[in-house]
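Memo to structure team: turn this sequence into structure tokens by end of day. - J.P.
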Amino acid sequence: MFPYLETLVFLPGVIGVVIFFFPSEFPKRYYKGLGVAVSLVELVVAAAMLVQFKTGVGGYQMVSTYHWIPTFGIAWSLGVDGISLFLVVLSAILFPIAIFGSKETKDPKSFIAWMLILETACVGSFLVLDLFDFFLMFELTLIPTYFLMSNWGFSLGGRAAVKFFVYTFLGSAFLLIGILALVFIHDGGTGQVTFSIVALAHTQMSSTAGRLIFLAFSIAFLIKAPVFPFHTWSPDAYSQSPITAAIVLGGVMAKLGTYGIIRFDFQLFPQASRSLGWLILTLAVAGIVYGAVTAAGESHLSRLVAYSSLSHMGFIVLGLFAFTQIGLSGAVLQMFNHGIYTAALFLLLGMIYARRKTLDTSKLAGIQSKAPIMAGIFTVVMLASIGLPGLNGFVGEFMILLGTFITHRWWAVIGVSGVILSAVYMLWAYQKVFHRRDPEQRSFKDLSIREIATLVPLVILIVGIGIFPNVLLSRINPSVHKVLSNSTTQSIVYHSSLGKVAGR
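Reply from structure team:
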């Protein structure tokens, strides 16, 4: 079989590294075209992988394993299931759109190189099946993001980049401690050193050890998502990053955190995930309400989207820890949906900024009469973010709330307030920017053909998934069922073993 997964992981990163060695005589105007071409090839490979993926299979497919450092039980292992499948596809969709829609002219060689390396890090994080490999890819996302933010960001981009790096690097330190502790415990019980998540899922450990390591992993993932109260880096990062980096931050990298919870917390620590689920659920609903209320008071559109994203990521975490088929499937679907409409929002904000050099709602007005095409597309994207039935944002949120209501009724009730508040702050901001009369009657250019072409694929996905969500769910559900079944089985085995020990 064609090495789909290896190609997806290595293609953009290898070419990104090679670009750094291009001679200075290479015309600068060609770098963006090269970046778009490479990312489009990545998209074609991802589409071929999607076609080859077998519907109805819950386990990993297209698995390949190469013994890398056998002395320490480290292997280069790749695999894809219904949970990681659409996160890889999401990455493959958003990177070419972000690069194509970018307007950065400063040092295009380094910009494109860092973007392609970042794509390798994101896609690799979703596909690796070895904890050591995952940690490498998880960490690799920090380096290109830091340089993109500091070198091509707005006036405070350098400070935001440092804050982002320190926060996420601290979370990674907790993750590394948790990984090493888990590996040592497994070695002590079996005499085998391994970083394979399949093998480590059967590690026997005490309840206290399981909970502590679960918390170490979860802190890293909650920071990355971000989830309240580990979110404080995100408003600065989103508002000070170049729009291209903001698309990747909100659309792709935030999903590394929630994906990590499913893939590692639920698979490695099922008992701790359930016993401490109430804590994460509480943080999730706090983030839903806090993000929505704070967004309502924001006058800067990028920061408004950042706090809106915080609220929406709270919904996703709520669905994860509902531990129901419909809630978890809804959360996985919503990861994809959130990436699509968040990317579209940031693209639109970048187009507004290019025309007015501001994203302050107090300085923007009367855009609808001057740019009706932009207003129409913005309306569709905004309504998807609110969760209007018929658009992709509704399906995931509805499934999450329904799944959570089955097992955690009061958390679901509080979560509903986020849906109401999202309509308030989004419609309020839209009214001020697009409908309010502009006293100065300033001109505003409508979307160009190039800008429309950048946005149309995202709008098609927003409408298409809203009408036909089962195209995704038919591939997501079997893997979600397998995760929940394994989690339940391992919890039963764990409690049975404790009972035997107590009986002795």
